[in-house]
Amino acid sequence: MTLLDPYFRLRPNGETAFSVEGNAIKFGPGVLTEIGGDAKAFGLRRVLLVTDSRIRGLPLFQTAHDALTGAGVEVVVFDEVVVEPTDTAISRAAQAAIEAGVDGFVSLGGGSVMDTAKAANLLSTWPAPFLDYVNAPLGRALPPPGPLKPHIACTTTFGTAAETTGIAIFDLAEKGVKTGILGRALRPSLGVADPLALDYLPIPVLASNGFDVLSHAIESYTARPFTARARPDASSPRPQNQGANPFSSLACLEAIRLTARNLERAIGDSTDRDARAALMFAGLLAGIGFGNSGNHLPHALSYPVAHHVRQWRAEGWPQDHALIPHGIAVALNAPASFRHAGPTAPQRFQDVLHALGGASAGEAGEAVASEFIRLMRNTGLPSGLAAVGYGAADVQLLAAEAFEQKRLIDNAPSPVTVDDLEQIYRSALRYW
Ligand SMILES: [Fe+2]
Asked: Residue 192: what are its φ and ψ, rounded to 5°?
């Protein structure tokens, strides 16, 4: 028997069901002006408004602030969020929440801001040593003892889908590694996506995030089928990275279609609000997709690439330190990963190619890679890992570290070895 698609063929002792989880979401121009009423509906009287110094200087900060105070909600501002937050920065936000005695959180910003608010909510509501909550094996991955405070997550960007996920990513300073806290309790109570907030998003950031969205959608659509996992005990919940399933596939295909049709338009014309709104909705859809399915190779391979950056600086980001933005790190590994994975999920990649609007010729994974590379070239992305400072001598180290991303590696459409990862990195050095 299959469930809705031959890709979801039921197997002996395999999983037979998938679950769909998500939070409440509001999408539309102007929804940021409604958050005061939203906060009241959650019974909030005093909130910590979590943001960063850049956002605080923008008119949209005033919009959010006025919306809250206008509804009679007291606001305490915490604007010390840093890009790529550390555990220390998160602890500071948690401390601010405790000192301010807030009964809820409103975050206004990108992934770093929303993730900081999620983790600060956890640590201030249920204080415990930081590592108690951090993902194993670095931490103990303990679930919170009870519910968290309400959190309204207002995104000022798109792509991370942090407003929809129960994931907070940060750098663990003492160990020098990127890790996270993962748990359903962390999912914001309400995600607010106002396309007008994207008026302030610089074009390079928009491009990077657009590729992140496209890769989320392709990865989640081509992830191993949920039916390939062993069936869990009746008592244990299904993992968030349960594999591709009929629901996430639906969201992902539309996200691919919308991104392919609007990315170049949005990058080419910074006043094209329609294209930006379409990308924001695609980001939400892809977020729902990967939140219920999971990413795989391009994301697994992106983390060591971002971590070991030497000199490269990205246009549109602070120039005081080397940085490969997340979306670019993902995009650089995506075509090579799709080439590798294509033959193991041919029909899935054929569907992706169709959603991209690409002509079907030859092997589908290869054709998807070509379409992806074409978009990269047309939008000014680096031409491969060599263009951001990596060479053949780095491949072994990168592959060994990427292989440690078990949760993502296991979600690839078929099993991969360290040798496979080395081959993918080599093929990602230069695309044109
Ligand atoms: Fe991503």
From this structure: -115, 115
Please tell me whether residues 249 and 311 are part of one structural domain.
yes
Give strand pairing partners of 179: 170
Residue 295 Cα, ligand 1 centroid: separation in angstroms? 8
Determine the pLDDT at residue 250.
Answer: 96
**C-alpha of residue 159 to centroid of ligand 1, in Å:** 7
**β-strands 167-172, 177-182 pairing:** antiparallel
Q: What is the band of 407 on the pLDDT scale with cuts at 50, 70, 90? A: confident
Query: Are the CB atoms for 246 and 419 separated by under 8 Å?
Result: no
Ligand 1 centroid distance, CA of 289 (Å):
12
Bridge partners of residue 47, in order along the sequence: 75, 104
pTM (2 decimals)? 0.93
Last residue of a domain, one of 193, 216, 237: 193
Order of strands across the sheet with 24-27? Answer: 24-27, 190-193, 151-155, 104-109, 46-50, 74-78
| CA 327 to centroid of ligand 1, rounded, Å | 6
Of 141, 162, 193, the domain-final residue = 193
Say how many Å lie between the CA of residue 383 and the centre of ligand 1.
19
Range of the domain at 131: 30-193
Summarised one tens digit per residue, pLDDT across range 31-46 is: 999 999 999 999 999 9
State the distance from the centre of ligand 1 to the C-alpha of 284, rounded, in angstroms.
Answer: 12
User: Tell me, what CATH number does 85's domain have?
Assistant: 3.40.50.1970
**Same-domain status, 179 and 214:** no
Cα–Cα distance between 291 and 242 in angstroms, integer? 9
CA 65 to ligand 1 centroid distance, Å: 29
The pair of structure tokens assigned to 425 is: 């990195």
Q: How far, in Å, from the CA of 326 to the mean position of ligand 1? A: 7
Cα of 337 to ligand 1 centre, how many Å?
Answer: 15
